[in-house]
Amino acid sequence: MQYQTTASTPPQLSLFEGLIARNLAPFADIARVPAQASQERLSEMTLSGSHEHCRLLLAPILRELSEAADIRWLTLIAPPPSLSQNWLRESSLNRDRILLLPACEPQNALDLACKALMSGCSHTVITWFTRLDRSSRLKLSAAAELGRTQSLNIRLGS
Questions:
Q1: Please, what's the b/e burial string for 115-133 (b: 16 or more CB within 10 A of its CB; e: otherwise)?
Q2: In CATH, which superfamily holds the domain spanning 41-156?
Q3: Residue ranges of domains in the chain
Q4: pLDDT, tens digit, for every residue of 116-142?
Q5: Which of 43, 53, 78, 98 could lock 109 by a disulfide, CB 3.0 to 4.6 Å apart?
Q6: pTM of the model
């Protein structure tokens, strides 16, 4: 597949090329970067009910984000197993614009989310943390500010 770029649109960097190109600070230091009060970059949403009901509510939101005018990725960090490749296809999401990044444990998911946010390669990075403490919120907000990216944490409850 070939990509054409126009003079007004910079080419999209991969996640890690974006990190290297920006020469970013270590992840332990990002919580110290003050987020600008003018634009909140971290949002949270809680969906409760059956998993099927939550997926029905989530599908149009993800579809809209996957079709955003912004040419950067919609990145899903460690999504729940119910949001499989098949579900993404059946929900008519633009899978060419979605980056799925698995994580083995919650701390790895937080670090991965911060890397994705800081890189600036995504317009929105979605996480699935059941609970965010103050430190995690600060890290995500600061990383989102550095990358000029939106961070959305979705809590799925029953």
A1: bbbbbbbbbbbbbbbeebe
A2: P-loop containing nucleotide triphosphate hydrolases (3.40.50.300)
A3: 41-156
A4: 999 999 999 999 999 899 999 999 999
A5: 78
A6: 0.75
